[in-house]
Design goal:
This is Probable transporter Mch2p. There is one protein chain. The protein is 78% helix and 0% strand. The protein is mostly helical. It has one domain: MFS general substrate transporter like domains (Growth Hormone, Chain: A). The termini are far apart. Mean pLDDT is 82; it is low at 5-23.
Length: 455
């Protein structure tokens, strides 16, 4: 065999191996994709699931006057800071995701989370609690959960909303486990051992996240540590495409209102229970039942969104939340009735997190390569709006027989506005599909709304 023939054979072998590798590439919506969804759910369990039990700490801090010169607004603001940092640092996390990869981010995030909970258990002053249970925990959440939300879209196309439903179901399951455990630990010991328990359990449940990987492999870290690559990723991540599109601006407002409603309800329901005469033990069970509802409802909402249309289900659920808050919660004064309400509202309360990413993907189609910068800005604005969310909820509290009436009206109106805004978004999506099919001639106004989504 001549030298030229040997070289040609080598090239042929390389092509054959490459072809086999392409054929073996994991397919979306099947197989390992669902394993990734389950691992992502565990990462949500250890982050947002642990945060879903903050209502137990909030109620304890307020009723026991734990820290000197602290008010209920301080404790509410700490919970808001966690969400604000976790969501608002999305650009920072997205850039790190592209430069360092998933594993390095999760190692940093889990380490910070463990340290944050341990240090907060030794806090004796209010500012220390702000820095540990607030800032440190918020940053750690961002480093752990943002990679999950970036990995899932690479594995799912048709079943994306279902996958996100599985992912966010970890929030409800975590809320149940942590709320029940913390209630018992605080009862027999104190809140400090509750925080140490959180450190241990979140460390164990976040460990499987080290196995996470996107469907398309990222370049090695050594290839990314140069200014050109970093500047390109920063430019890509901070691409202000969201400001060029009215539908995306509407979705941003919708997302902020929906998640703010979620935060206020999650943190306030146990306080409402004590305001109607229930003890702290029963108030904790109200939070537990709400999280059981989240565990059941979030994957169910994701499945329904994929089957019947994301915007359709979002409209129905937003108006449903408005009705049961204004008609049911305002007339709830007994333990049994409040248990039933907590479960029902828990099933539908997380519509913002369950549907937003999938709806954003629908809005920017066929320019889905822009999903990461769009999702980045959605998280930034959501985080900023959630910092004062519970402070707003508590500031609406009054004295008398119905101390939470203004808060209930605020939540009901918020979900009503969300429903109206989603109706507008749905009409835009329908017109876009008709335009793509050629059944409708796009107006100049519609072109300005949609076609500016292109990079």
């Amino acid at each position: 065999m001549s030298k030229e023939e040997a070289e040609m054979l080598d090239k042929t072998d390389c092509i054959s191996v490459h072809s086999v590798q392409e054929e073996k590439e994991p397919q979306p919506d099947e197989g390992i994709a669902w394993l990734m969804a389950i691992i992502c759910a565990l990462s949500m369990f250890s982050t947002w699931g642990s945060n879903a039990s903050y209502g137990v700490f909030l109620n304890y801090y307020i009723t026991h006057d734990t820290f000197v010169n602290a008010t209920m607004y301080d404790y509410a603001l700490i919970g808001g800071i966690v969400i604000g940092f976790a969501q608002g640092l999305a650009p920072f996390s997205a850039v790190l995701y592209n430069i360092l990869g998933i594993r390095s981010m999760i190692i940093m995030g889990v380490s910070l989370q463990t340290v944050g909970y341990i240090l907060s258990s030794f806090s004796t002053k209010l500012w220390q609690l702000y820095m540990t249970q607030g800032v440190l925990i918020g940053i750690s959440f961002n480093l752990v959960f943002i990679p999950s939300t970036l990995v899932i879209p690479t594995w799912f196309v048709k079943k994306r909303a279902t996958a996100f439903g599985i992912l966010v179901s970890g929030v409800g399951l975590g809320g149940v486990v942590f709320s029940l455990s913390l209630s018992k630990i605080i009862e027999i010991s104190n809140f400090r051992w509750g925080l140490r328990f959180m450190a241990l359990v979140t460390l164990i449940t976040a460990a499987p996240s080290l196995y996470l990987r996107p469907r398309t492999k990222l370049p090695p870290i050594k290839d990314n540590l140069n200014w050109k690559f970093v500047s390109e990723k920063i430019t890509y991540t901070l691409n202000p495409i969201i400001f060029r599109s009215i539908p995306l601006i509407l979705l941003t407002i919708w997302f902020c209102l929906a998640v703010m409603g979620y935060v206020v309800m999650l943190y306030s329901l146990s306080s409402y229970a004590t305001s109607i005469g229930l003890d702290t033990h029963h108030a904790t069970y109200i939070t537990v039942v709400l999280n059981v509802g989240q565990f059941v409802g979030r994957p169910t909402m994701g499945h329904l969104c994929d089957k019947y249309g994301r915007s359709n289900i979002a409209i129905i659920i937003c108006f449903f939340n408005c009705i049961i808050i204004l008609a049911w919660w305002t007339n709830t004064f007994s333990y049994g009735n409040l248990i039933a309400f907590a479960f029902v509202i828990g099933c539908t309360l997380g519509i913002g997190s369950a549907a937003c990413n999938a709806i954003a993907s629908d809005l920017i189609e066929p320019y889905r390569e822009n999903l990461q910068p769009v999702w980045t800005y959605l998280n930034i604005f959501c985080g900023m709006s959630c910092i004062p969310a519970e402070v707003i909820g508590l500031s609406l509290k009054t004295k008398g027989k119905m101390p939470f009436l203004y808060c209930q009206i605020y939540l009901g109106v918020s979900f009503f506005v969300c429903g109206v805004m989603m109706m507008v978004i749905r009409s835009i999506l329908v017109r876009k599909k008709l335009t793509i099919k050629g059944e409708v001639v796009p107006s100049s106004f519609f072109k300005n709304m949609f076609y500016k989504m292109k990079t």
